[in-house]
Records
---
Amino acid sequence: MAMYSDVVMDHFTNPRNVGEIEDADGVGEVGNPTCGDMMTFYIKVKDGRLEDVKFKTFGCGAAIAVSSMVSEMAKGKTLEEAMKIGREDVAQELGGLPKQKMHCSNLGADALHKAIEDYLSRQGGKE
Amino acid sequence: MAQVYLDNYAATPIIPEAREAMLPFLESEFGNPSSLHSWGDRAREAVEEARSRVASLINAEPEEIIFTSNGSEANNLAVKGLAGALKKRGEHVVVSAVEHFSVLNPVKTLEKSGFEVTVVPVDPYGTVDLQALEEALRKDTVLVSVMAANGEIGTVEPLAEAASLAAERGIAFHTDAVAAAAFVDIDVKETGITALSLASDLLYGPKGAGALFLRKGTRILPQVEGGVQEGGRRSGTENVPSIVGMGVAAELAASLREERSGRLSAMRDQLIRRMLEEVPHIRLTGHPTERLPWNASFVVDFIEGESMLLFLDQRGIAVSSGSACTSRALKRSHVLDACGVPVESTQGSILFSFGLENRPEDVDAVMEALPPIVERLRQMSPLYAKFLREGGA
């Protein structure tokens, strides 16, 4: 479909890192079915790095591709690096997104950040 | 790969008879129907022949047909033109909640210019509530617009009843018959309809032509002003090739209605039956029996329409969806909303619209492709995971 770039279609067709992590160190959820897109990110942290990232997404082609791309960009990064991944970076890596998809569908980075914040707050609780 | 086109509500292939009839008017017969020489005569005769054919489809008189560029323009002309002409008698307009945007948006414009608007609700099947319609009619009501059938969910509306409620009170009644006209037999003389909109492409003619039936003696304010084409009610040089094609398509729509209805509704029923049997957690939208022969529309829970559409496209199957993500305005379907379909379910809207070129095997192709796509998207969906965790089956 010409609306989306080849990279978007690739990530939509073969999304990377789909799933849940049973014993996740952090979970982040954004969106709701009313607005059309909903993403849940699960992270596993080891030595300050994202050892594993998985997601589940309800939404359009862009939402699924964004989630997949975010998971791939985040994996192996330090928490600090991962927190710096922004919506624009994701869209750029995907070869651009249609204008109308830049907001509601491009929430993957937010979900990832929420998962990291969840991890950090859990760590805080332990101390 | 299979090529299965099931988006005939968006666009239809032109029937060969219409295409053939159009060809001379794309070539040597390029004359302007307003010209006085023989080139003009031939173009004018062709337009007038098409006018008669379109009139016959709905039992109208040829002079009651105004050609437009498409169905949206016909709806705009009807709503703004009739309300505008009747403004002195009253400033209240009544429409149903499931009208096309080309009725609803002109009505919003009327509202800005001082009209009051009552939107009549529909039941869960999308059928207009006739009692609510009757109660909405007031002394200052000048126009009622209720569509003949809704293309998005397929529901055929109680047109005759709605029209007579208006006619009994001397209120102008317009119906958008764009989605219905090829399959629903409408007699404008019998029903007392004031105005009726048609589109060529939904009759399997070319794009670029539409028509408004306007009962003899009804005043209307033109929306495109200029020369005196179409009796001064719609100015602009006629799109002769498309109008000619529309005429042929209208004639065939009338003569082949029954045969086409039987063929399409058999495929529709087979798809509906198999979808409901083979795909869990889905619902048919629209009326189960009072339904356009070509429309099979559903909402699929826990997943989103555009994703289904894209995966089906990769399998060579073309469909559409009323989900928010699919619409450029990012708004979910107002039709499903009016039917009371829950917000999260409207996101999983999927519409199959059959056309004349579909074959029964196309249903098999859909039923082979779609269930694994639904399953795959559900495996990805946090909503489905939640549903399973909460003990759903």
---
Amino acid sequence: MLLAMLDTVSRWAIPFLLLTIPIYGFLKRLPVYETFVEGAEEGFYTAVKIIPFLVGMLVAISVFRASGAMDYAIQAIMPLMQKLGAPAEVMPLAMMRPLSGSGALGLATELIKIYGPDSLIGRMASVMQGTTDTTFFVLTVYFGSVGIKRYRYALLTGLSADITGLIASIYVCNLLFH
Amino acid sequence: MLNIIWLLLLASGIIVAALNGNIEVVSQAALGAAKDAVEVCFNLIGIMALWLGIMKIAEKGGLIQILAFLLNPLLKRLFPSIPSGHPAMGAIVLNLSANMLGLGNAATPFGMKAMQEMQKLNGDRDEASTAMCTFLALNTSCITLIPATIIGIRVSYGSADPTEIVGACIFATSCATVVAVSLDWLLRNLYRPGRKN
């Protein structure tokens, strides 16, 4: 019931905004089309400004992944994660989640396909994928768009949130679905 | 911190590839990723232009300021350094709402707008402001009420109850948000400006 409502809201949100904001502007006697174009112009520059930051970050992550270094890192933290109740199969996903959104989605899909969506592994993969965000990507894109090069403690906060989200996913899945 | 992590990812990858005797993987991965990064940004242009255009109408009509004003009591606690009713607050609200509804495409341009407004308050420096750090702590740990992508995948692999994971997601992400906001508050008070990380 609640879920159906939320689903309706998310399907109507974009058409709603696209309708109400221009009408509101028109009633406020704004030249709506010209104002739209003026704002839209910034879209190009913002997107282009992100490129150098994203190239730097994606290259490092991709080399780390493709070389097999990530697999060693997974092996290293495996005993700790198993103590927390995570099956070995979900470890690559847990490691990938903060680094690469498309990589993590690929791994989650693979786990759901192999073990089934209603297995413990399939459910844990679903919750991990639905919980945390791709911290490295978000920080790179958001800070890059305004030319911030020094992130201060933002990465530390973001990664701590990711680790918390992962541990909480493992805990709650074992509790609910075991 | 970022400099060290970046170097670590890159160097450990190259060293491992060299020791395993498949060094050619490195060039392939590096060049491929560089190309992908540009593609990601180019795909963003259209969506960014659309939402930043709509945002401009909302901003000039005063709608963003109204939104910021309405949520001011909550936001001024989280973002003490942003003046009441500042457009940054409105953009932050839009970004977080879009995130919660799982509208990733709309969330990013709203987030960029919020960052631009905060950068104005930051005096265009190349170091993040405390408000930016709090915003990103909220953004990366934010609750998604409908994790639409993963539900879709569960449906396509024949789950008996594709949405059963939503409660678990909300629990896990709430834990993440609490940790992110508390840690951000703590670090904001400990951090001394000017130090390089």
